[in-house]
Structures are given as structure tokens and as C-alpha cells.
Design brief:
Blueprint (H helix, E strand, L loop, with lengths): L2 H4 L2 E4 L2 H5 L7 E6 L32 H18 E11 L4 H11 L2 E9 L16 E8 L10 H7 L8 E3 L10 E2 L2 E2 L7 H11 L5 E4 L6 H8 L3 E6 L2 H12 L22 H6 L8 E3 L6 E4 L5 E3 L2 E3 L1 H9 L11 E4 L2 E4 H12 L3
Parallel strand pairs: 1-10, 2-3, 2-9, 4-6, 9-10
Antiparallel strand pairs: 3-5, 4-5, 7-8, 11-12, 12-13, 13-14, 15-16
Length: 359
């Protein structure tokens, strides 16, 4: 099976058999929302005697744990084979299955990177009042093996999270309102996941034009979000009804503009010595550098040092002296005047790199 021929499509059939035809090491990211094997016993009713719309679908039923484990081993084996060496996989589940799945993943050679707790801000109540309200699901994020150089956009996620490290507890509401797909007033799929959840997964662990595979496509959330974020998607779905629901949904999605999908904050600063800016007259010998308040100024010398308060030093040592620190990054501190406005020397460094280093 040529991977190019199945990009941006949903394949109908059993995911294990279809994945057997996908080439080795061809997928960048996998999101899997497998059957949870909920083992529900009978119908569930609210105190007001209305029936709960629970997950009672045939595809979630297994005769035994052994049967479920065999199924899990088979689909996870194929996922690991088709995953690129530096690709990652996300598997979501509940207490019914996630511990069994996690053990199987480790046995198969996956390297678990995190378990993420999706905390539902609006969970379904426990109507019987016999247990704690089950208000979360668990996601396992794993690389193909221990040595994988996997993708993780740490700085971007920190910006996403108001300059705080993104934590492993994610507060996201369950899928309701207009996002919930309904056919003739009924839920199209009983376990539709919120787009906000997939957005965070895809944006954090893949790049534009990567291939994202979902072996249990369901209502198409993975494909819809992947398309919007400029990724290629491959879905697998055994139910013709769900396949049509997902395809109709994805058709209506328009990708974000390409210039909004970069990870500019992740881009490393160019390695340009301060002296290079002097040699090419981006900064001139004898002119002054200033801090942002223009309270401090230092003269640029021909040898690339600065003179401040009768002391010579680098852009870093002089800014450290001013701030009373042992060390400091002078690129973040100094500015020059251009057209009577302050211009960061870090900006000039990037301009130099664009001109001479193809940055």
C-alpha cells in the first residue's frame, strides 16, 4: 500500500488487517481511542427515571479480558511497526482498560513518556451514588522505543499555557453543544472526543504536513483537527455509518493559513558572534548601546567589546554587571538607536543571519 495513496482518507475495515498493509516506519503520530471494554451490566437510569445514553455498542463488548488483551496486542503491534522511529503514539482509556493497555505497550517495546489526565470539567454524574464520580480519562503518550528522538514543542506549549509549563492534568469539557454530532437528534457516536483535546495533542507532538493516523476513527475528530492544523490524516473505521459521518464532517473543515502553523518560538537563535555585526556594520564602531529604559549606555569598541563606566567587557559581562548578576544574556539587554527608535541587537542578529546564513 502506497502511503501517498491513502493520505487524507478514511479506510473502511478492520484496523488490524488494514494496518498490516501500511508500510513500516511511515506514520508520524498515532492517536488511538480503542474500545474501553466497559463491561456494563444492564441499563442505567437516572433518579428521575430517564434512561442514560451510555456506551452499549457492540464494538465495545468482549467475552473476556483475555480476548481484549489479544485484540490490544494485535493492534498495538501494528501501530508500533508503522510508526516512524521518532514518532509517538497516544492511547486514551478509562480505568476499565488503560492499565491493561499500558502494560501491553511496555511489553511490546513502547517507551512511556507521560500519562496525561484529561479532567472533565462537566462529567456525567454517578447516578447510583455507589462510587466516586468518574471525572477523568487517562492518556498514555509513548515513543516507539527508549532512544526515539520524539517531537515535543515545549516552548510553544508554555506560551499556550500563559508562560507556565504545560502540566499533565488537562481541564477540558466533554463534547457537548454544537460540537456534538447528531443525526435525527441522536448522538452520531457515543464516545466522540472534544476537538480541544485533539488540538492539544496534535499541536504539541507533531509538525505541519506530518501524517496522523487514527485506527479507530469514529466520528472523525482526529481527522478534522489534523486537517485544520495542516497535517495529513489517515483514518480507519469498520462501520460504514461512522465512516460517512466522519467524511462529511471533515469535508467542512478549512485548514488554518500556513503562515499561522509554524513554531517560531521553538526556532533556535542563530549562532552569530557580536563582532560579526560590527564587521558588517549592522552595528558601527563608536556608537552607543542602550538598555530598554535608556538609563544605561555603553560604547562599542572596534574589538567587539563595550566600554561602560570605564570598564571593558563583552555584551554579556557588561549587562550582568549592570544587573548585579554573575551571568546574563546580553542579546536580550542591549538596543541601538535607529531612526530615533530603539532597535534590539537580537533583531539585528537575526537580520544578519537571514542575509548571510540562510536563517
Amino acid at each position: 500500500m502506497d502511503i501517498k495513496e491513502i493520505e487524507n482518507s478514511i479506510l473502511l475495515g478492520d484496523c488490524i488487517q488494514i494496518m498490516k498493509n501500511i508500510p513500516d516506519n511511515s506514520i508520524d503520530l498515532i492517536f488511538a481511542d480503542p474500545p474501553y471494554n466497559l463491561q456494563l451490566q444492564g441499563e442505567l437510569w437516572r433518579p428521575n427515571q430517564t434512561k442514560v445514553d451510555a456506551v452499549t455498542d457492540k464494538w465495545d463488548k468482549f467475552m473476556s479480558f483475555e480476548e481484549y488483551d489479544k485484540f490490544s496486542i494485535e493492534w498495538l503491534q501494528e501501530c508500533r511497526r508503522i510508526l516512524k522511529s521518532n514518532g509517538t503514539i497516544w492511547v486514551i482509556g478509562s480505568y476499565h482498560n488503560i492499565f491493561r493497555v499500558g502494560k501491553i505497550m511496555q511489553d511490546l517495546g513502547f517507551w512511556i513518556l507521560n500519562d496525561i489526565i484529561w479532567i472533565k470539567t462537566n462529567p456525567m454524574p454517578n447516578f447510583k451514588g455507589t462510587r466516586f464520580n468518574n471525572a477523568h480519562e487517562t492518556l498514555i503518550w509513548a515513543s516507539k522505543d527508549k532512544n526515539s528522538k520524539y517531537k515535543f514543542h515545549y516552548k510553544s506549549l508554555k506560551g499556550y499555557n500563559d508562560d507556565k509549563q504545560m502540566r499533565s492534568d488537562w481541564y477540558i469539557p466533554i463534547c457537548l453543544g454544537n460540537e456534538r454530532i447528531r443525526i435525527n437528534g441522536e448522538k452520531a457516536h457515543s464516545t466522540q472526543k472534544p476537538e480541544a483535546l485533539l488540538h492539544r495533542i496534535i499541536i504539541s507532538t507533531s509538525d505541519s504536513n506530518d501524517i496522523v493516523l487514527d485506527p479507530f476513527m469514529g466520528s472523525g475528530t482526529t481527522g478534522a483537527v489534523a486537517k485544520r492544523l495542516g497535517r495529513k490524516y489517515i483514518g480507519i473505521e469498520k462501520d460504514t455509518f461512522y465512516k460517512k459521518v466522519a467524511e462529511d464532517r471533515i469535508k467542512e473543515i478549512f485548514p488554518y493559513k500556513e503562515d499561522t502553523l509554524g513554531y517560531l518560538i521553538e526556532k533556535p537563535k542563530p549562532k552569530v558572534p557580536f563582532g560579526s555585526l560590527i564587521g558588517d556594520e549592522f552595528i558601527k564602531v563608536g556608537e552607543n548601546l542602550y538598555d530598554i529604559s535608556q538609563k544605561h549606555k555603553a560604547k562599542v569598541m572596534a574589538d567587539g567589546t563595550l566600554i561602560y563606566d570605564n570598564e571593558a567587557g563583552s555584551i554579556h559581562s557588561i549587562s550582568a554587571k549592570i544587573l548585579g548578576r554573575d551571568r546574563h544574556n546580553g542579546w536580550d539587554f542591549w538596543y541601538v538607536l535607529r531612526n530615533e527608535k530603539l532597535c534590539s541587537i537580537d533583531y539585528l542578529r537575526e537580520e544578519y543571519a537571514k542575509k548571510y546564513l540562510d536563517y
